TrEMBL record:
<keyword id="KW-0315">Glutamine amidotransferase</keyword>
<dbReference type="GO" id="GO:0016740">
    <property type="term" value="F:transferase activity"/>
</dbReference>
<dbReference type="Pfam" id="PF00117">
    <property type="entry name" value="GATase"/>
</dbReference>
<keyword id="KW-0808">Transferase</keyword>
<dbReference type="InterPro" id="IPR017926">
    <property type="entry name" value="GATASE"/>
</dbReference>
<dbReference type="InterPro" id="IPR029062">
    <property type="entry name" value="Class_I_gatase-like"/>
</dbReference>
<feature type="domain" description="Glutamine amidotransferase">
    <location>
        <begin position="60"/>
        <end position="200"/>
    </location>
</feature>
<dbReference type="InterPro" id="IPR044668">
    <property type="entry name" value="PuuD-like"/>
</dbReference>
<protein>
    <submittedName>
        <fullName>Glutamine amidotransferase</fullName>
    </submittedName>
</protein>
<dbReference type="GO" id="GO:0005829">
    <property type="term" value="C:cytosol"/>
</dbReference>
<dbReference type="GO" id="GO:0016811">
    <property type="term" value="F:hydrolase activity, acting on carbon-nitrogen (but not peptide) bonds, in linear amides"/>
</dbReference>
<dbReference type="InterPro" id="IPR054647">
    <property type="entry name" value="GCDPHdlase"/>
</dbReference>
Length: 206
């Protein structure tokens, strides 16, 4: 069976004891792949390797991309780490648009996709932990586990909202024409798949 990869962006962490920037992923992502993406291998993307190198060298075995959580967007909390990550993930989004490569943004990753298309953000203190969302596709309410200080207040074409929080901020969206999706809760954490409909729709595109 040929190998099939899903690239996943990583959190950037600055060591406090001496200057070193590290790339990191939660162990929960490994468990998530085993349970929900069996048949695909996670490929952590290094910010020092241009994304186009991955895309070209993997020769068709790169089937999708996940933009993971962690770090604020640079426009919300300007710093060197956030800027580096924003620029790299911008390259990924552009490639996914051009090549119709399935892309899923999770938490910070969803914010980055929304920002790419000109979204507006607002600060909130009620999106730390469990809260209710309404899915406009399934017409169901679910309790999700969000951990972000900034919410998506407004998105722009060609994105469309498909789930909203009780404060009317956007918790999930999709691109109208491309296989690009975003969810603001952490699907890889405990109870993260309480609403799996958006993930499953993305998965069908792989």
């Amino acid at each position: 069976m040929p190998l099939k990869f899903i690239g996943i962006s990583q959190r950037l962490i600055e060591n406090s004891n001496y200057f070193e920037i590290r790339e990191a992923l939660s162990l929960e992502w490994g468990e998530f792949f085993l349970q929900h993406l069996n048949g695909y291998l996670p490929l952590p993307l290094s910010y020092e390797i241009p994304f186009i190198e991955y895309a070209q060298r993997l020769n068709g075995t790169l089937k999708g991309i996940i933009l993971s959580g962690g770090n604020d967007l640079n426009i919300l909390n300007a710093n060197q780490i956030s800027q580096k990550r924003d620029e790299y993930e911008g390259q990924i989004i552009t490639y996914c648009l051009e090549e119709s490569l399935p892309l899923l943004g999770v938490c910070r990753g969803a914010q980055r996709v929304a920002e790419y298309f000109g979204a507006n953000f607002t600060r909130s203190d009620i999106h730390i932990g469990k809260h209710s969302i309404q899915n406009l596709t399934t017409y169901q309410k679910r309790i999700v586990n969000s951990f972000h200080n900034y919410c998506i207040e407004k998105i722009r074409e060609p994105l469309c909202g498909i789930a909203f929080a009780e404060d009317f901020t956007i918790e999930a969206f999709r691109h109208k024409h491309k296989p690009i999706f975003g969810v603001m809760w952490h699907i890889e954490r405990e109870n993260g798949m309480c609403d799996a409909s958006i993930f499953e729709e993305w998965k069908k595109k792989l």
